[in-house]
Amino acid sequence: MGRVLADLGVGHVFGVVGSGNFVMTNALRAGGVPFTAARHEGGAASMADAYSRMSGRVGVLSVHQGCGLTNAVTGIGEAAKSRTPMIVLTADAPAAALRSNFRIDQSALATSVGAVSERVHGPGTVVADVTRAFRTAVTQRRTVVLNVAIDVAAAPAEVAGPIAIAVETPHFRPDAASAARLADAIRTSARPVFVAGRGGRGAGPEIAALAEAAGALVATSAVANGLFAGNPFSLGISGGFSSPTTAELISDADLIVGWGCALNMWTMRHGRLIGDGTVVAQVDVDVDAIGAHRGVDLGVIGDCASTAADVLALLAQDSPPTGYRTPAVAERIATSARWQDVPVTAEPDTGRVDPRALTIALDEILPADRIVSIDSGNFMGYPSTHLSVPDEFGFCFTQAFQSIGLGLGTAIGAAFAQPSRIPVLGTGDGGFLMAIAELETAVRLALPLVVVVYNDSAYGAEVHHFGNADMTTVTFPEVDIAAIARGHGATGVTVTGLDDLDAVRRWVETLSSPEPSGPLVIDAKITDDGGAWWLAEAFAGH
Q1: Is residue 536 very low, low, confident or very high in pLDDT (cuts 50, 70, 90)?
Q2: Comparing C-alpha atoms, which of 420, 419, 417, 409 is closest to residue 442?
Q3: 91, 298, 359, 424: which sits with the fewest CB atoms below 10 Å from its CB?
Q4: For 393-413, what is each residue's pLDDT tens digit?
Q5: How far is CA 378 from the centre of its chain?
Q6: E strands along 389-483, which residues?
Q7: pLDDT band (50, 70, 90) for residue 459
C-alpha cells in the first residue's frame, strides 16, 4: 500500500500513529512520502485537508482503527463537504474479530459525513484497490476513506516494479451550443460580473482573459479569495464579506456568471446581490451543481478553463466592449472596494484593541508573501477581509462544516503546502483553545507560524446572536493565552492596543535570521464589535 500510494504521487501524510496504522505509515515513509505527527487525529485531519487544498497534491491522513477514525471525523467531514481530494488511510478491525473494542461500522461513519468509503480487500487486489481510491479522490474531487483490516495489512503482497499509472484531473470542454449561448449573454450585457468559486481556482488566467474581453468585473467566493489578486477590476469576495462598494456593484450587474461557484446563500447574500432582471449563468463540471442552490437562466457543463477559452474564442471577432469597466467604476474599486480602504471609526480607549484596526495594522506588518488560514467563529470576517493574500493559494477557508477548532491544524497543513510563505492563522479564543494540542506540533516543527487570536473571552457568535439571554454558558473568565503559548515554547504577545504591535515587528525581523523563529501567538484582547456584519448571514442559513 505504501509503495502504491507513493508511486501514485501522494504528497504528504499527517496522522497519529497507533498499533493499527504503525506499519502502514512507515511503509509510506519508506516510499519517500514525508510524515508529520500530530497530537490529535482531529488536528491531523485538518492538516491533510489544508495540504491537499493548498498544494494541488493529494494529502493523506493516517489513523488507527475505531477511535482513531472517530477522533478525526469532524475534519474528515469538513474535507468531504469541501470536495477535497484526500485519502484517509485507516486501519480496521479484522472481519473475524467480532468482539474487538475497536469495531465500528467505519464505512457507514465515512459516508455519513460525505466521504467515499473504499477498502483494501486482500493482498491480491491491493494495487487495484488503492489505485481506485486514489483515482476517485483526484477525478471526482472526493475525500476517500480507505479501510484496511489489520490482518490484511499484515499479509505479504508481491508488487513487481514501480506502479506506473497516470491519474489526472479530467478536462471537460462545453458543447458548442452552450458556449455560444454564454457568449451571446455576454455580448448583450452592459454590466457583467464574473464570480469564481472553488471550481474556478485552477482557471484564473482564462477567466480573467475572458473578463477583460467582456468588460466584466471579477469577484470570488470566500474559498477562492485571492484568485484575481492585483487585477484592477477585482471586487474581492462576493457575499457576506463584501464591502459596501463591492455589494453595490454586484447587485447592479445585469449578468452574473458563476465559474465553478455555487452562487449559494453565502456568496449571493440569500439572493440579495442578484438584481431584478439580472441574467444568472453557471459553469461547472458537475451537472448536479447547476442550479442546486438557485435557479439559473443558463447552465454550462464544462471545466472553467476550457469554457472560458472557448467563449473567448467566440468573442474574438467582436469589438471590445467597455462593459462594466468604465473609468468611474475603476475609481470606485481603487478607492473603496477593499475593506482596508473603508474608514474605521475610532473606539473609546477601553483597554482592548479594535479588531478592524488590529487586522489592518497586521496586514502592513506581516510579510505580504503569506498563506492565511481561517478558523470559524464571530471573528472570522476580520482576517478574511482585512488581510491581503497574494493569490488563491494564499487563503485557506474551512467553513463547509462550520466547526470551530479546525484552524490550528489547517494552518500547519497549509504551511507544508506552501513552505516558502509565512503561515498566518486567524482564530478565536474558543477555537484556539479547542485545538491547543497542535501548538506543540507547530513548536516542534519550528514553523514561523503567526497565530492571531481574536480573544473576546466568549463564543462570540452566540453572544451576539442570542442578545439579552443568559450568557453564562458561552462566556468565560479572562485567559492569558500569551502565557500558555510561552509555556509551549512559542513567542507569546498580549495586544490591548496598537502600540503593543512593536513586539510583532521585532518577531518579523527575526525571520531573516538563520535560526528558526518558531511560532508567534498574538493574544489580541478585542473590543466588542456589536455583532459582526457577516453573522446575520451565517445565522440566517441555519
Answers
A1: low
A2: 409
A3: 298
A4: 999 999 999 999 999 999 999
A5: 17
A6: 395-397, 422-428, 450-455
A7: confident
Task: State what percent of residues in the chain have pLDDT above 90.
Answer: 82
Of 128, 109, 108, whose CA–CA distance to 120 is shortest?
128
C-alpha cell at 155: 499479509
CA distance 460 to 532: 9
Cα distances (angstroms) measured from residue 104 to each of 23, 45, 143, 356: 21, 19, 20, 47
470 backbone dihedrals φ, ψ, rounded to 5°: -65, 115
CA-wise closest residue to 485 among 439, 446, 426, 438: 439
Strands 143-149 and 422-428: unpaired
Q: Distance between CA atoms of 246 and 99, rounded to whole angstroms?
A: 59
For 55-71, the three-class secondary structure string (H helix, E strand, C coil) is: HCCCEEEEECCCHHHHH
Domains of the chain plus CATH, in order, are 1-154 (3.40.50.970), 176-337 (3.40.50.1220), 343-540 (3.40.50.970)
pLDDT of res. 529: 67
Which pLDDT does position 257 carry in this prediction?
98
Phi, psi of 17 (to 5 degrees): -95, 125
Which pLDDT does position 457 carry in this prediction? 76
Amino acid in the structure at residue 79: A
Please give the pLDDT value at position 289: 94
Nearest to 253 by CA among 181, 184, 186, 320: 186
Write the CB contacts of 511 (distance below 8 Å, at least 6 apart in sequence): 367, 422, 448, 517
| HSE-up of residue 230 (Cα within 13 Å, Cβ side) | 9
383 touches 375 (CB < 8 A): no
pLDDT tens digits, one per residue of 203-257 = 999 999 999 999 999 999 999 999 999 999 999 999 999 999 999 999 999 999 9
Which residues touch 510 (CB under 8 Å, ≥6 apart)? Answer: 517
Residue 154: strand, helix, or coil? coil
Point out which residues pair with 537 in neighbouring strands. Answer: none
Which pLDDT does position 351 carry in this prediction? 87
* CA 349 – CA 375 distance, rounded (Å): 28
What value, to the nearest 5°, has the Cα angle with vertex 35 and ends 29 and 38? 145
* Integer CA distances (angstroms), 242 to 166, 234, 336, 464, 541, in order: 41, 12, 11, 20, 17
